[in-house]
Amino acid sequence: MDFIKNVSIYTDGSCLGNPGPGGWGAVLRCNGTEKELSGGFRRTTNNRMEILAVLEALQALKEPCKVDLYTDSQYVRNAVEKKWLAGWQRNGWKTAGKQPVKNRDLWERLLPMLAKHAVSFHWVRGHSGHPENERCDALARAQASRPGQPEDTGHAD
């Protein structure tokens, strides 16, 4: 598959309490253009917001792209890079400890996006002054603090 565009995506999730009000933020950059995305829920978890930031950012791409994705979530990065997702699927969405995989609904939505795009994950240390990560954190926190957010109807972890 030929990927026409190279996109850099930065993501972060935030929760004020865990579970508690949460938000996610993403910054997408391509050919000198930048787009910010964010959203939130009245009650959710940090891990759900980290996954959702990646999912929403990838869904925003209109065509298959080569993506450099920067996240401070070891959970999200490892699930993909260390093949946890593939193992969970093979095991009927059970962990190595035979427990149900948390956030399965989001992982199942993310899988087609990972198949559509050529995604390389890069870990960045959170709250370390990385400008894009700090911006995503600000977007996520603003959403988590916003009144009137909907309920997260997924399964909290």
UniProtKB/TrEMBL annotation:
Catalytic activity: Endonucleolytic cleavage to 5'-phosphomonoester
Compartments (UniProt record): Cytoplasm
Gene Ontology BP terms: DNA replication, removal of RNA primer
Keywords, alphabetical: Cytoplasm, Endonuclease, Hydrolase, Magnesium, Metal-binding, Nuclease
Residue span, RNase H type-1 domain: 3-145
Sites where the protein binds Mg(2+) 2: D12, D137
Record-listed E.C. numbers: 3.1.26.4
Domain of life assignment: Bacteria
Any one of the GO CC terms: cytoplasm
Binding site for Mg(2+) 1: D12, E50, D72
Record text on subunit structure and interactions: Monomer.
HAMAP family in the record: RNase_H (MF_00042)
The family this protein is said to belong to: Belongs to the RNase H family.
Record protein name field: Ribonuclease H
Organism lineage: Bacteria, Pseudomonadati, Thermodesulfobacteriota, Desulfovibrionia, Desulfovibrionales
